[in-house]
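Annex B.
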Amino acid sequence: MLPCIPPRDETKAPKAKAPALSCDCHMHIFGPEADYPYSQQRGFTPPDASPQAYWRMADTLGFQRAVIVQASVYGWDNRRTVQAVEEFGRERARGIVMVNADVDRQTLSDLNDRGIRGTRFITTISGGPTIDNLPGVAAKIAEFGWHIEMYVPRNLWPELLPVVADLPVPVVFDHLGGLSAETDENDPDLLGILRLLESGKCWVKLCGYRASLTGHPYDDVTPLVTRYISTAPERCVWGTDWPHTTLADYMPDDGDLFDQFCGWTSDEAVRTRILVDNPAELYHFPPA
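Amidohydrolase family protein: predicted structure tokens.
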């Protein structure tokens, strides 16, 4: 299993705090393992990451809303994610779970009532659902206005992008679509993702550090991220990816990551759209 170091105990205060009602659109809650056991098929074992520890970090950044994303270590057991939404409170949190094609309507209805707004397909690490379930799951969640969040190896995009275009629900491309910082500006997978963003059907999460090839401070991801922002700022959201699982050496500081986000665009209206307005639309938060 992949090693994991814990998140930082202290977060550096960013140069500027986030605007009111900013939403961290990608983070996880883990443990305690005795109450929420991990899947035997997991690819890593994370340290505990509690709601209290998360909000200490988020308060430093100035974030008031969060999206709790089901991690592969829990497989189909969505209890920790659902409970975390309850602990956070539905006025400030939403959740993304994992469901299979055999999920029944009542289960989806119950999850929807508890603040869940989408399901995740993650095939980059053990424990996630397989791609062949994609059309079946999409057909079932469409009734509830959910979306699908996808984190898949980039070699799958030539086959999957036409499928994504035909799904009856929006798709969120996680972690910059799984593309690396060295992606050429005319790369066909990048161009295909950009077309789907421009169509208004899909979204992209600007969680950038995993795309870096040079490591901290992850400056090499800037051209790829700014390409997404300049093409479709109305389809971008941002997330910390706290507590930064599967990292074995350097643990990023979320204050630095937020400062990097602010450096990707000098337009405060665009920043507010990405941090506040887009998440409110995508995750169905109530208006201010």
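The CA atoms of residues 139 and 168 lie 7 Å apart. The beta strands are 23-27, 65-69, 93-97, 116-122, 147-151, 171-173, 202-205, 236-237. Further annotation is deferred to the next reporting cycle.
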